Amino acid sequence: MEVGGQTIRAGEGVLCTLSTANRDEGAFTDPDELDLRRDARSHLSFGFGIHQCIGQSLARAEPQIALETLLRRLPGLRLAASFEELRFRDGVGFYGVKELPDPCPALPPDRP
User: Fold this and answer.
1) Do the beta carbons of residue 88 and residue 96 sit within 8 Å?
2) Is the Cβ–Cβ distance between 88 and 95 less than 8 Å?
3) Hey, how many other C-beta atoms are within 10 angstroms of the C-beta on 31?
4) Contact criterion met (CB below 8 Å) for 80 and 102
5) How far apart are CA 56 and CA 43, in angstroms?
6) How much is the pTM?
7) Phi, psi of 64 (to 5 degrees)
8) Domain edges within the chain
9) How far apart are CA 35 and CA 66, in angstroms?
10) Closest Cα to residue 24, out of 42, 51, 36, 48?
């Protein structure tokens, strides 16, 4: 069988990852760019149809609440390195920054 120009022989394994599906140039303009305003209703991060994640509303709300809280408590928070200096983990299951060069500043004692 051939899929996307790759021959798959009998008995060979195939690994399909959602992160790759969400980087489909046929579905998204500039799929490798982070665009928080992108209309991405066709993404597959939470599954599809009857197999859709029942916790997706909570999963969408948590980072928004966390980032709003973090930026409210630390309004001067900035990366200690340029984007180009960051090293990324690019594995089969996970993609993200390996480490941040400096820890976040501590909260002042009078702030909750």
Assistant:
1) yes
2) yes
3) 17
4) yes
5) 13
6) 0.56
7) -65, -45
8) 2-78
9) 19
10) 42
Q: Tell which residue, 40, 41, 1, 43, has the closest CA to residue 19.
A: 43
**Tokens matching residue 54:** 């029942």
* Strand bridging mode 95-97 / 6-7: unpaired
> How far apart (Å, rounded) are the C-alpha atoms in residues 27 and 3?
18
Tens of pLDDT along 13-42? 888 776 677 888 888 888 888 787 887 777
Distance, CA of 22 to CA of 47 (rounded, Å): 11
**Torsion over CA: 16, 87, 46, 29 (sign):** negative
Which single residue is written with the structure tokens 């900035």?
78
DSSP string, 14-52: ----HHHHTT-TTTSSSTTS--TT---TT--TT--GGG-
